[in-house]
Amino acid sequence: MRRFLFALLTCLLPAFPLAAGEPSPSASCLPVHSLSPKKLAFQAGEKLNFVFHFNLGVINADVARGSFTADSSRFQKKDVFLVRMFGKTAKFYDAFFKVREDFYAWFTQDGLVPLRFTRDTREGGYYCLNEYAFIRRGEPHIAATLENSNRPQMSMDIPLNDCTFDPLTLFYLARNVDMTRVKPETQIPMTFAIDDEVFNIYFVFKGKDSCKLPGIGTVNTLKFAIKVVAGEMFGDAKEDLYMWFSDDDGKVPVYLEAPLKIGKVTGRLESYEGLKYPLNIK
After folding, report:
1. What H or E segment, with its residue span, contains residue 106?
2. If you count Cβ atoms within 10 Å of the first and of the last residue's Cβ in the chain, which end, N or C, has fewer?
């Protein structure tokens, strides 16, 4: 079960201020709509609650819950979104393998430019801490402070370009993709940093679909395959991770399927509040 909550994100200090009227770097990385605050797919006050289900042999149960919240704030004299992803195993499963995932990200409301990111992961006896500052003056880089159970605290610079994001900023940016510019089987490249590495992944649009969600209804969706990075969490990565987003202006993530080394995890939207646009429910 290790790191299964983090599967949802791989579908996700000082910075040089943009001049007035200057296009956001984010807008050139993906085929997105305007990234002006009024036209974004989400708004401050949005909260999405998910249930995670694990299937392996005799284990076929909801084992964890997670949430995404978006609030407005001020950071470095800018209007920013402060978003949080928090996930935890259910109380019963804490006795076997306790997991807590707590991520925060600060990014500009105009343009969704990442400024700061923190990660606090606790998995059984393992912990991992990340703190990123996105530096764009001089030679751009991510000033990272890293620590985990196997390594004492260290500082390093991670290469940064306009299309490198932290997982949470990327997650919210991806919801603003302009689907009128994306045909089925189109590959949409994305880049994110986590720990001391930068990963290149891509979404593949598979077409329109629908998802039946208990307590919500049947949601009209857009289905994407995500080419994942091989490694500890996903094994040889021969299978894709699949995500379904609502087929509306909010592009709310409503369902996912993720292959793990052992078993499979699925996640479904359980409840929501503060959506900017209504869900496209049949």
Report:
1. strand 99-108
2. C
pLDDT band for position 216 (cuts 50, 70, 90)? very high
Q: What angle do CA 211, 216, 218 make, to 5 degrees?
A: 30
Give the burial class of 153: count Cβ atoms within 10 A of its Cβ; 0-12 exposed, 13-18 middle, 19 or more buried.
exposed
The C-alpha atoms of residue 224 and residue 219 are separated, in whole angstroms, by 15
Whole-angstrom distance, CA of residue 15 vs CA of residue 24: 14
Single pTM value for the model: 0.87
**Host H or E run for residue 170:** helix 167-174
Q: How far apart (Å, rounded) are the C-alpha atoms in residues 215 and 44?
A: 24
Model confidence pLDDT, tens digit, residues 117-153: 999 999 999 999 999 999 999 999 999 999 999 999 9
Q: How many C-alpha atoms does 216 have within 13 Å on its Cβ side?
A: 23
Of all residues in the chain, what percent carry a pLDDT higher than 70? Answer: 85
* Extended strands (E) in 8-97: 47-56, 59-75, 78-89
Output b/e per residue, 233-265; b: 16+ Cβ within 10 A. bbeeeeebbbbbbbbbbbbbbbbbbbbbeeeeb
